[in-house]
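Onboarding guide, step 5: your first structure request.
Type a short instruction followed by the sequence, for example:

Predict the 3D structure of this protein.
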Amino acid sequence: MLSQNHFYYGMLRKYIIAFQHIVSDIKVLRTENGIVKKEITVPVTYATKTKMFNHIMRNKAVSDRINTILPRISFIINTMDFDQNRKTNSLNEHEYDNGKVFMYNGNPFNFNIDMSVWAVYVDDMLQILEQVASFFKPDFIVTVKEIPEIDLEKNVPVELRSITLDIENEYDDTDRIVRAELNFILKGYVYPPIKNNDNLIEHIRIKMGEMKNQNILET
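The system replies with structure tokens like these:
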């Protein structure tokens, strides 16, 4: 039943890029006596928490300078759940290109995103959390060009669900890593294939005539 011509819109990839764009320009300032000594743009990596932790520990073991790779943000889309509340009639058609092609309604999914904030200094972590949390009320809207082939563009809400603080090795300042876990829900869609409208009428032939003299005008 699912056998058909291949199609792929890369929706998950687009949502990953969209979320990364939201958190890609966060900065941390290191100050001393009120004077800014260093400004850090926080790197963002798409990776699981375990993979990111191993990466940090591996670099620490090699260089023993963990503060050169932190602070850092990592995130991962771990689940996608069908959203019955946003479902519309699956048979509704949307026509494009003057009716030559059409698409049925997309299926609404909630994409569950787990984000980790990693830092050596508590103040670094708090700066990042404040910059993120202040923009979610609790939603933040990001515009995504979902299917450029038909100029489909949508405002996609991203909702901040929770923030959890975690400190590892808090009694050993030389090895301490502070971490915060944030959970988001991105409310997106997965779309069916674009179809050709085979029933589209492009030409009409009309014959007009007068019965008296049988003159016929054809258009």
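Each response can be followed by summary notes, for example: The helical segments are 11-22, 49-63, 122-133.
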